[in-house]
What does this fold into?
Amino acid sequence: MAMNIVVCVKQIPDPADPGELDPNTKTLKRDVKLILDEADSYGVEMALQLVDAAGGGEVTLVSMAPDDEVGGIRTALAMGAAKAVLVSDEALVGSDALGTAKVLAKAIERAGDADLVITATESSDGYTGTVPEQVAELLGLPSITFAKSIEVDGNTIKVKRQTEAGYDDVEAPTPAVISVTAGVVEPRYPSFKGIMAAKSKPVDEVTVADLGLDADAVGWAGARQEIVEIATAETREAGTIIEDEGEGYAQIVDFLADLKVI
Amino acid sequence: MESQDDLHEALREGVAAVCSQFDDAYWRDLDERHEFPWKFYEAMAEGGWMGVAMPTEYGGGGLGITEASIVLEEVAASGAAMNGCSALHLSMFGMNPLVKHGSEALREAYVPRIVDGSLHVAFGVTEPDAGTDTTKITTRATRVGDTYVVRGSKVWMTKASLCEKVLLLVRTTPIDEVVRRTDGLTLLFADLQRPEVNIRAIPKVGRNAVVSCEVTFDDLEVPVDHRVGEEGQGFKYLLDGLNPERILVAAEALGIGRASIRKAVDYANERVVYGSPIGSNQGIAFPLAEAYARLHAATLVVREAGARYDDGLSCGEQANMAKYLAADAAFAAADQAMQTFGGFGYALEYDVSRYWREARLMKIAPVPQEMILNYLAEHVLGLPRSY
It folds into this structure.
């Protein structure tokens, strides 16, 4: 049975060279080169494996990014996704989590009938962790979060949902929105042929109006979330280095005893 | 993807992603243990990177020497240096004479296996008594019925002990019986793992993960249908590959230069002596800035040479200059990295000495810098031949 899966992917500043926060808007500057959020590469890989296992169907990417950015989308296309919907519009600047979810939900509908929507649990730059559930609500679909494994059985999706203590077995009918953890699968590296093929894969570039959304519902205009303050995280204090001159073990035992962990 | 630059950027990222699994510790360990980088080789083969410049009808990507050189530059720049590049180099372009001049049967039988990495190939030209003076080779192939019987020895054959096949240059007509000394040389695609072939590893200064061998052929039989192209035309076929070879080697050198500068800059920022990072001293900073500038200049010439080759233009001048300038810039960068690290540079665990040993090779192989200058002096400037 063929399976069509939509994967939401975010294109973010390279965490190795993340750029700066804008002090006026208190948001991350996104005028640098953007790459595929590593957190999303797990969803792309999971989707590719599920389509493979189903013996047919395709993976479609959905992304919202400034300036028609496709750098990260190309990476996911090179991994094996078939096509993409990219929403890029000046009106989207300043979108909060719900604004983003509205756009993604419309873009997912535009991508066609999906048997499954996969997202990461949260992005590696914004970290709100609320978009997947909002997307599910807007689409009227079941939402399963923190999937550490996904199995498809006919029209049922079976998920092992990561919890602090272990995992829960959760089931839902398809279609559903599932957020996956970084442990779900090991993402492949794009192959040479994948990179070459990605050049000619279609990217449907659309605006807010194309999606039938009111510009006031998104961006700064539609944002209900406000960033009140941004502050630098406290630098962690350097750890204690114990030089082992034959008695190192005793100092470690004393240290742990002081912490009352032994 | 709109432009050529975008494609090249995507290729760089793709190679860098594969190489990111193989860090300096991986290469240091294999270099110390003189062991071939199998996992790296398999990862590159699996990603299809070996076939970038091979024809599409044999499973390759059909791209040019520019793209092949970008792949190898990125491999070297990852810290793999020549241990990484030499593991792939011959498969990526060295078999060009076979691809261009081999019979359809030979190509169909072997090229797809070179592209998918399952066939390891060596290249046998240099002999103990014939280096750049290639026409003086004495390895002889005598025609007996439908076979050639090969006798002689080759030296500096990369990977020979691991390879199933070798593209071998032999003399089929003795030098005193030919009109021009470049006549009478023939290319054979011969078996290597045979009782008639003796392979001995040469202990060497560096690039020890990839073995270099001395190989003797004691009446090895090669079927006539494993001859590449016409009998007696081998030298001509070989010449076709010289410029691309120089371009690839130049690109590999650029990669080592980049790796060296990256390491040195990181160290110069971290290492604090007399209360400040050593990189705050101009005695440390200026030479690294200069090395960077020289490497960039060499990069432009390497790209020019690659673009000309891919456009079907003459590129002897550019390919030779590219090799000369890139080898020079890479060694200067690696040497400055050694200086930046001070005493620690001499310790194997800091990796710059590995780059330094391998960068030094680039000034010698596949031709020494002096022979490049000879070429430029004679063929570009029009000065009398000096040798």
Remarks:
- Chain A has one domain: 5-258.
- The mean pLDDT of chain A is 93.
- Residues 38-54 of chain A form the longest helix (17 residues).
